[in-house]
Amino acid sequence: MRNGIPRWLLAIETSCDDTSVSILRDGREALATVSQTQVAPHAAYGGIVPEAASRIHAEAIDSVCGAALGQAGVGMDEIGAVAVTVGPGLPGSLLVGLEFARGLAFGLRVPLVPVNHLEGHIAAAWLDVEEGPALPAVALIVSGGHTELVLVDGPGRYRMLGRTRDDAAGEAFDKVARMLGLGFPGGPAIQKAAEEVNDTPYTLPRAWLRGTSDFSFSGLKTAVRRLLENRLGPDESARILGGDGLYQAVDGDALVGQVALAFEESVVEVLVRKTVDAARAVGARSIIVTGGVAANARLRSEMRAATSIPLFIPAPARCTDNAAMIGLAGAWAMARGEANGTRLEIQPGMRLV
Ligand code: KG4
Ligand code: ZN
């Protein structure tokens, strides 16, 4: 026990479609993280089916937890605190994680620590590094549900600089991937399709929303739809975009890759430029890029090329949802005195600030 942080902390993340458990040493080092991502039931629908997600979490959580303890070589009875995501996220999915965590904490008679998933994404920048981001930092959180620029003054000290006014960046990736027949989850599929072409004749719009740090991605989605309608003709595009079928790329057909690349270029350029501008405007000493979309190779490389401000982008497995980041944010919350007995509730609409 150091500063109230136990030697071994167990963290649980089930807010969306990843069932993840991590074991942290001294509230700092994620020794073992086991994650199980749900793909099959959601792929058929091109998006997450909440009822299926919570059922799969319930089936997976116990064995994922056992595997994480096994990998860390830590016994259940050595766990000194349990941290769990309480929001934001899908209610049914959050409930499975919270009730499992509550049972563990109650049985072990250890503190139960509520974690904000978005603070978890920020905390990811402090994992696996000797020295974390210098403060103040500007953090871009880009995930399936969120696109937010946050000023980070320290653990628990956040100020919202801007956010998306409509779709999250990851949501746009997922929707455009669906239009292109690339399946779910869309982000990795778009990245792969874009990598298969060298160039694209298409330029899609950028929503700059000048003078703000806000974002908008719904117009881009509509522009992709129009582009496909123009290229494919009314009948074929109605069939595809109506959701009855998916576009079947034929050999030598570069359309999918070219549209994917144009889309990625548009999203990445806006994310990079607005993040760097915001960091400069507030005099940030470092930049954090985190959340599922931060796993994107183009975003990572363009971000590196765009700024000399020290940049912290967690490894891809720490960008997408994982319990290691929840464990670290849980340790921060414990240090703030937020360990909360066993009377916790889920907060599906929870905000960062
Ligand atoms: O953070 P995350 O795992 O879950 C949420 O909190 O939402 O983010 C998931 C999102 C999905 O929209 C997924 O398509 C996107 O991150 N994503 C990517 C990549 N990998 C995951 N987007 C672009 N490129 C990727 N390589
Ligand atoms: Zn997330």
Brief sketch in words of this structure:
This protein has 353 residues and is α/β, with parallel strands linked by helices.
Query: Separation of termini?
Result: 30 Å
Number of strands: 10
State the helical fraction.
40-55%
Radius of gyration: 21 Å
Features:
single chain, 353 residues, alpha/beta, 5-stranded mixed sheet, 12 helices, 18% strand, binds 5'-O-[(R)-(carboxyoxy)(hydroxy)phosphoryl]adenosine, binds zinc ion
SSE blueprint:
Layout: E1 8-13, E2 18-25, E3 29-37, H1 40-43, H2 50-72, E4 81-87, H3 91-108, E5 112-116, H4 117-123, E6 137-142, E7 147-154, E8 157-163, H5 169-179, H6 186-195, H7 218-232, H8 234-241, H9 255-282, E9 286-290, H10 297-306, E10 311-312, H11 316-319, H12 323-335
Parallel strand pairs: 1-4, 4-5, 6-9, 9-10
Antiparallel strand pairs: 1-2, 2-3, 6-7, 7-8
Bound molecules: 5'-O-[(R)-(carboxyoxy)(hydroxy)phosphoryl]adenosine (KG4) and zinc ion.
5'-O-[(R)-(carboxyoxy)(hydroxy)phosphoryl]adenosine binds next to helix 5 and helix 6.
